[in-house]
UniProtKB/TrEMBL annotation, chain A:
Gene3D superfamilies according to UniProt: Acyl-CoA dehydrogenase/oxidase, N-terminal domain, Butyryl-CoA Dehydrogenase, subunit A, domain 2, Butyryl-CoA Dehydrogenase, subunit A, domain 3
SUPFAM superfamilies referenced in this protein's UniProt entry, alphabetically: Acyl-CoA dehydrogenase C-terminal domain-like, Acyl-CoA dehydrogenase NM domain-like
Protein name: Acyl-CoA dehydrogenase
Organism from which the protein derives: Crenobacter oryzisoli
Matching CDD domains: ACAD_fadE6_17_26
From TrEMBL, chain B:
Protein name per its UniProtKB record: Acyl-CoA dehydrogenase family protein
Keyword Lipoprotein recorded: no
Keywords annotated in UniProt: FAD, Flavoprotein, Oxidoreductase
Residues of the Acyl-CoA dehydrogenase/oxidase C-terminal domain: 194-338
UniProt keyword annotation of Transmembrane helix present: no
Domain of life where this protein originates: Bacteria
Protein family according to the UniProt entry: Belongs to the acyl-CoA dehydrogenase family.
Organism this protein belongs to: Crenobacter oryzisoli
Family annotation (InterPro entries): AcylCo_DH-like_C (IPR036250), AcylCo_DH/oxidase_C (IPR009075), AcylCoA_DH/ox_N (IPR013786), AcylCoA_DH/ox_N_sf (IPR037069), AcylCoA_DH/oxidase_NM_dom_sf (IPR009100)
Domain Acyl-CoA dehydrogenase/oxidase N-terminal: 6-120
Cofactor requirements of the protein: FAD
C-alpha cells in the first residue's frame, strides 16, 4: 500500500499539463452532436494525435505512449482539469482499439488502429436493435456469408454519433439458424457502404446524438470480421467490459463536476443554505466523486499486477451514473427557478451550463447496460445469488 | 501508487481469520451476553497468542512495530466476527497513544508498552466525543482526556456506573475520576496532537469494523436467501431481493478504498488525515446502516427474531455507526476542507499532500 506518485508520474503530469495549457481551445467547441461541432471535435482529435496524446495507453509504435493505467488516470485528471473538449472518438480509442489489439489479426491492427489514433475514422457502436435492448442476445440483424462478403440486412438503433461517424462496429447474426449468444459475429462496417440508411434520432436535448441504422443488402468483406465467426458475443463482452469497467467514464470527469458543484454552491450560499440538505448533498457528491477516483486507482493497481476486471465493471457503472444524477439534482436544487434555463440564455454565472449535464445525466443509468441489469450481474456474479 | 496488500499482510489476515472463525462463534458471543463482565479470559489469551496485542507496539518494547494498514485488516476481522475484547483500544489506539507520549513519560512507556505487547494489560479510552467509556470495567488502565491533557488512571481510582447497550456485547460505563498531577502524562498542548491522532485512529478502527460487519451481514443474507424457498424457488432468485443486496455491495465497493486511503494517510501523517478518516467513517456508516436494513428485509420475519444471529451484527452496526463522532461532526470536518476558500478543488488533487 503506497499512495503516492513516482517522479516519473509527476513528470508525466507536468508534461501533459503544459501541453494542454497551450493547446486546449480557448472557446469551448460547439456540441459534437451538431455537424460543425463534430468536425471541430475531429480536428481536436488530430491535434491530440499530433501531440501523441490521443491514446496514451496505446503502444508507442502506434503513436501512443505505452502508458499504464495510473498514467492514464493522471492524463484524464489533467484533461478534465484543463476543461479540454469531449472525446468524439471515445468509441474508437477506448473501446474498439483495445478490442482490436486483443482480437484483431496483424493486418486488422495495421489497417484500423493508426486511423483511430489519428481521428481519421470516428466509430459508432451497433449493439442495440428495436427488439434487442437489455436482452442483447435477441439480436436479429443478419450478416449472411456470400463468397468473401457478408450481406447484412436488418436494423440497429440508438447508435451514438452514427449520424456523422465513418464506421460502425457491432454484432450481427452470421448463422441464421442460431439463437441467443451463439452464431453472432463482431463485424466492422463502413457507414458509407451502399444499402445503409442512417436516420438521426433527436435526444432529450433536441440534438441528434444517436441514430437508427438500416441495412439493406449491405456487402461487407469477410476480413472486416473481428475474431472468429460465431464468437462475436465474447468479443463484444470484452468491449463492454472496457466500457463499463474503466475507460468510458474516468473519475476525473465526475471530480470536475463535483468541483463545479462546490463552486456553484459557494456562489449561492445565502440562498442555498436555507435548505441544509443542499450543503449535505454537495459534500456527499464531493466525497462520492473522491471515492470513485480511489476505487479506480485501486482497480488500476490490481490490473497492473495482473488482475482482471470482473463484476466491478458493474459496480462502477451504477456508482458513476447515480453520482452524476445526484450532482445534477443538487445543482438544480441550488439553481431553483433558474434551473430550467438553457445555456443559450445569457446569464451571469453560466447558470444554463448545468442543464445539458442534467439532461445527459438522466441517460447514465440507461446506456452501457441499464443499472437494473448491472444489479442482476452483481447479485449473480459478485454475490453468487441464484439465477 | 499501489492499493494492494503485501503477501505478508494477507497471510496475517488469513491466519487471524481462520482462528476467529473457529473460536469467535456466535454461540460464544451469546454466552458472554449472560456473564457479568461480558468478556472472556480465553479470548484474550487467544488474541495474545496470535500476536495481536504486540502488533503495533514498537519493536524496542517487544512488539512487532506494524502499522495502521495492518490494523485495518485486523479490525475488519474483529468486525466480521463480532469480537468485543478490548483489543483495538489496547493494542492499536492505546499503544499508539502511549508510544507517542513525550520523553517525560519514558518510564511509563517502558512499563505499559511491554505489558501491552505481552497481553498483560487492557486499556480503555475516554474521550469527550463519547459520553461513555467502553470496557472500562476490565481495563487495567484508563487513558482519559481532560481538557486535551492526557491522563492515565488505574481502574482502582475511578468510579464506574454501567449503562446497558442495545448490543449486549458492548459494556459501557460512565467514569468519575479526579485529574491530578500524578495522573497527567501530557499537557494540553502536547495532548491536543496526541488526542487528534487517537481520535483519527479510533474513527478508522470504527470504520474498519463496520466494513467487516457489512461483509458479515451480506454473507448471512446471501446464505439465507439461497436456502429459503417461496413460490417454489429460492428467494435469492427474485430480482427485488437481489437488488437489495446488490445495493449494499455497490456501496461497500466504494467505501473500502476510502478506508484504505485513510489508513495510509494516518500511517504517514498526511496533512489531510482527518478529512480522509472522516470520509471513510461517513461512507462506511451509511453503507452499514443500509446493509442492516436490507439484509434484515431479505430475512422476512426471521430477521426480526432474537434467535437469528443477524441481530448480533446488526446491533453492532447501529451502535458503532454513532460512536467517535456523529455524522454532523464528520461532515463538518469534510466541509472544513471542501468549503475552505483556499482549498484547490480539481481532479489532480486526490493524492496531493
Ligand atoms: C444516450 C444513449 C446512448 C446510447 N448509445 C448506444 C450506442 O451507441 N450503441 C448501442 O448499441 N446502444 C446504445 N444505447 C442503447 C442502450 O444500450 C439501451 O438503451 C440499453 O441497453 C437498454 O435497452 P432498451 O433501451 O431497449 O431498454 P429495455 O431493455 O426495454 O429496458 C426498459 C426497462 O426495463 C428494464 N429491464 C429490462 N430487462 C430487465 C431485466 N431482465 N431485469 C430488470 N429490469 C429489466 C430496464 O432496466 C429498463 O429500466 C444508448 C442509449 C442511450 C440512452
Amino acid at each position: 500500500m503506497e499512495l503516492d506518485y513516482t517522479d516519473k508520474q509527476r513528470a508525466f503530469r507536468a508534461e501533459i499539463r503544459a501541453w494542454l495549457a497551450t493547446h486546449v481551445p480557448k472557446q469551448p467547441l460547439p456540441s459534437f452532436d451538431t455537424e460543425e461541432g463534430f468536425k471541430a471535435h475531429r480536428e481536436w482529435e488530430r491535434t491530440l494525435f499530433e501531440g501523441r496524446w490521443s491514446m496514451v495507453t496505446w503502444p508507442t509504435e502506434l503513436g501512443g505512449r505505452g502508458c499504464d493505467l495510473i498514467e492514464w488516470l493522471i492524463f484524464e485528471e489533467e484533461y478534465w482539469r484543463a476543461g479540454a473538449p469531449l472525446r468524439v472518438n471515445q468509441n474508437g480509442v477506448f473501446l474498439l482499439g483495445p478490442t482490436i489489439m486483443d482480437y484483431g489479426t496483424e493486418e486488422q491492427k495495421q489497417r484500423f488502429l493508426p486511423r483511430i489514433a489519428a481521428g481519421d475514422d470516428i466509430w459508432a457502436q451497433g449493439w442495440s436493435e428495436p427488439n434487442a435492448g437489455s436482452d442483447m442476445a435477441a439480436i436479429r440483424t443478419k450478416a449472411i456469408r456470400d463468397g468473401d462478403h457478408y450481406v447484412i440486412n436488418g436494423q440497429k438503433t440508438w447508435s451514438t454519433r452514427a449520424v456523422w461517424a465513418d464506421w460502425l462496429f457491432g454484432l450481427f447474426r452470421t448463422d441464421p439458424e442460431s439463437s441467443r449468444h451463439h452464431g453472432l459475429s463482431f463485424v466492422l462496417v463502413p457507414l458509407d457502404t451502399p444499402g445503409i440508411t442512417v436516420r438521426p434520432i433527436r435526444q432529450l436535448n433536441g440534438e441528434t446524438g444517436f441514430a437508427e441504422v438500416f441495412f439493406d443488402d449491405v456487402r461487407v468483406p469477410v476480413e472486416n470480421r473481428l475474431g472468429d465467426e460465431g464468437a462475436g458475443w465474447s468479443v463484444a463482452m470484452a468491449t463492454a467490459g472496457f466500457e463499463r469497467g474503466l475507460m468510458l467514464r474516468s473519475p476525473a470527469r465526475f471530480q470536475a463536476t463535483a468541483a463545479a458543484l462546490v463552486r456553484l454552491y459557494q456562489a449561492n450560499r445565502a440562498h442555498a443554505d436555507r435548505d441544509p440538505a443542499i450543503r449535505n448533498a454537495v459534500l456527499d457528491a464531493w466525497l462520492r466523486a473522491e471515492a470513485y477516483a480511489l476505487a479506480t486507482y485501486r482497480t488500476a493497481s490490481r490490473l497492473i499486477q495482473g488482475g482482471e476486471i470482473g463484476a466491478e465493471a458493474s459496480t462502477n457503472k451504477i456508482f458513476w451514473s447515480e453520482l452524476d444524477l445526484k450532482m445534477h439534482d443538487a445543482a438544480q436544487a441550488i439553481l431553483g427557478a433558474h434551473g430550467e434555463l438553457v445555456a443559450s440564455v445569457p446569464r451571469e454565472g453560466a447558470i444554463g451550463s448545468w442543464i445539458d449535464g442534467f439532461l445527459f445525466a438522466q441517460a447514465g443509468p440507461i446506456y452501457a447496460g441499464t443499472n437494473e441489469i448491472q444489479r442482476n450481474i452483481i447479485a449473480e456474479r459478485l454475490l453468487g445469488m441464484p439465477r | 501508487m499501489d492499493f494492494t496488500f503485501t503477501e505478508d499482510q494477507l497471510a496475517l489476515r488469513a491466519n487471524v481469520r481462520s482462528v476467529f472463525m473457529k473460536e469467535v462463534a456466535p454461540e460464544l458471543l451469546r454466552e458472554l451476553w449472560e456473564t457479568d463482565t461480558g468478556r472472556s479470559a480465553e479470548l484474550w489469551q487467544l488474541v495474545t497468542e496470535q500476536g495481536l496485542t504486540a502488533l503495533s507496539v514498537p519493536e524496542e518494547y517487544g512488539g512487532l512495530g506494524l502499522a495502521d494498514i495492518d490494523w485495518v485488516l485486523m479490525a475488519q476481522e474483529v468486525g466480521y466476527y463480532g469480537l468485543t475484547e478490548p483489543l483495538i483500544d489496547t493494542a492499536w489506539v492505546g499503544a499508539a497513544l502511549i508510544a507517542a507520549l513525550p520523553e517525560s513519560a519514558a518510564a511509563f512507556k517502558d512499563v505499559w508498552l511491554a505489558r501491552i505487547a505481552h497481553g498483560e494489560a487492557k486499556l480503555a479510552i475516554g474521550h469527550p466525543l463519547n459520553p461513555l467509556v467502553e470496557n472500562a470495567h476490565v481495563a487495567d488502565l484508563l487513558l482519559l482526556n481532560h481538557r486535551d491533557e492526557v491522563h492515565a488512571v488505574p481502574r482502582g481510582q475511578v468510579t464506574l456506573t454501567a449503562h446497558a447497550s442495545l448490543d449486549a456485547s458492548r459494556r459501557l460505563f460512565a467514569v468519575e475520576w479526579t485529574p491530578s498531577e500524578a495522573t497527567r502524562l501530557a499537557d494540553a498542548e502536547v495532548g491536543r496532537t496526541l488526542w487528534a491522532d487517537a481520535l483519527n485512529r479510533s474513527v478508522l478502527a470504527v470504520a474498519a469494523q463496520l466494513s467487516g460487519l457489512v461483509t458479515r451481514v451480506l454473507d448471512l443474507a446471501i446464505d439465507y436467501t439461497a436456502e429459503r424457498k417461496q413460490f417454489g424457488k429460492p428467494i435469492g432468485s427474485f430480482q427485488a431481493v437481489k437488488h437489495l443486496l446488490a445495493d449494499v455491495a455497490v456501496e461497500l465497493e466504494f467505501a473500502k478504498p476510502a478506508l484504505l486511503r485513510a489508513a495510509v494517510s494516518l500511517a504517514n501523517g498526511h496533512s489531510k488525515t482527518g478529512l480522509h478518516v472522516s470520509h471513510a467513517r461517513l461512507a462506511l456508516a451509511d453503507t452499514a446502516t443500509l446493509a442492516a436494513r436490507h439484509t434484515m428485509q431479505v430475512h422476512g420475519a426471521m430477521g426480526y427474531t432474537w434467535e437469528l444471529d443477524l441481530q448480533i451484527f446488526m446491533k453492532r452496526i447501529w451502535a458503532l455507526a454513532a460512536v467517535w463522532g456523529d455524522k454532523a461532526f464528520h461532515l463538518q470536518r469534510v466541509a472544513d476542507h471542501v468549503l475552505a476558500s483556499d482549498t484547490v478543488l480539481d481532479p489532480s488533487q486526490t493524492f496531493a499532500a
